[in-house]
Amino acid sequence: MAGLLRAIDNCSKPTIAMINGHAIGGGCEFAISCHFRFAAETAVLGFVQIGLSITTGWGGGSRLLDKLPESKALALLLTGKRVSAQEAERYGLVDAVYPADRLREETERFAAKIAAQPLSGIRAYMQLLRWKRDGLSLDERIRREVSQCAELWGSDDHVSAVQRVLRKN
After folding, report:
1. Domain tally for the chain?
2. Which of 115, 132, 160 is the last residue in one of the domains?
3. Which domain holds residue 156?
4. Which of 10, 55, 56, 94 has a C-alpha 20 to 30 A away from that of 156?
């Protein structure tokens, strides 16, 4: 499972968890491995492992500590508290909460906005995330970002997009 969740977390394309029910323990570890998390109003989330005298075993604790402020992540990990979708959103554990009957529609709407963008741009931004996670300095990440943009500048996709914008004006 740790390997599968690492693959999801390191996927070169954005991954989205849609939580419509309980994401407790391993389910919460799965959700935090995704780049985005959307939940139904009735969802419940929790890292309950501590109450079982264990820790997260698939990398969920480490990911949580990377994605949330330390005090919020530790509060979830050290108390084993189960939180409502609304509280999870306040923590930053989920990105948005929707009524259960609209969860799929809203999640797919968000995914469609990303999917409508050029794949080259999506891959480039996901590369920025990888560089950050690899621990590269901000200066080095910016240097690489500038270089990456220069490589995309003038590509057929870029020229076509600029021409579309100019035709609209």
Report:
1. 2
2. 115
3. 119-168
4. 10
